[in-house]
Amino acid sequence: MRYVIIRDDDTNALTPVACLETLYRPFLERGLPVNLAVIPEVATNTRMPDGKLEGFLLGKADETGSSVAIGENRNLVRYLLENPGYRAVQHGFHHDYFEFDQEGRAEIVKRLEQGTRLLCDAGFPRPQTFVAPYDKLSRPSLEEVARRFRVLSTGWFELGRLPFKWWPRYALKKVSRAAHWRIGRTLLLSHPGCLLSCQRTSNSMVESVINHLASHQLTVLVTHWWEYFRDNRSDEKFISVLHEIGDHLATNKELKVISFSDLVDGRMTLN
User: Is residue 245 part of a domain?
Assistant: First the structure.
């Protein structure tokens, strides 16, 4: 049996319910869990390198404040809680570019703990999985995340950023060519990049995802909800690719879609 974790990034207080419903209703109806990396208090002026607002600020209005906590959108929170197939994990704090790529430990701890508190105050279970914005984590951030969370999901690990006491375990991971490894109680998961992305062609996406799933025991399949609705328009072709992958996941008996919490609770184990 091979396992798949669907991780959709950047849900926040400005995310339209209709976007998530359009993308994931077919998954929910088939009992396929969808892990949403939720921004606890989204900064509303976060910009891409070209100066444009980040795509996940799709629902921003002129009167929107400088940041908005997830709990302020009761309609969205209610929708997510009423559909238990959605599993919320913590995605940074404000989703600033360098917010966890810094050395200030006190500030790192503050952001981690405030983010967790905001998710819990909104009504979500205490998050046990952390996803860093832009996959950027300093050495102190890695240490503090490992103290507080049972799973860290990121794109890659760099020796120069790892705490020195992690180096022996990292060396063993490299020698064994393992994609995933563990430090104490914390499982460290890497992913193969965004195989589901608007930057890829439809045919290459389907082929890349299916091939990767067929050759790995556990795949964290990452995508971003807002990429399917760029410029306030639905990308129907891209949405159909996502649903085609959903069909494959639901019908292939060698694949099982799980949540991060399945790993935390011990219902699934990795070789």
Answer: yes
- Domain assignment of residue 16, given as a range: 2-264
Q: Report the candidate in 40, 41, 124, 38 with the shortest Cα–Cα distance to residue 84.
A: 124
Q: Which two tokens stand for residue 129?
A: 């999985």
Q: What tens digit of pLDDT does each residue of 124-154 get?
A: 999 999 999 999 999 999 999 999 999 999 9
DSSP 12: -
The predicted model scores a pTM of 0.96
Give tens-digit pLDDT for 42-52.
999 988 878 88
Alpha-carbon separation of residue 40 from 118, 198, 244 (angstroms): 6, 25, 31
SS3 189: strand
Q: Report yes or no: 17 and 79 within 8 Å, Cβ to Cβ.
A: yes
Q: What is the CATH number of the domain that holds 8?
A: 3.20.20.370
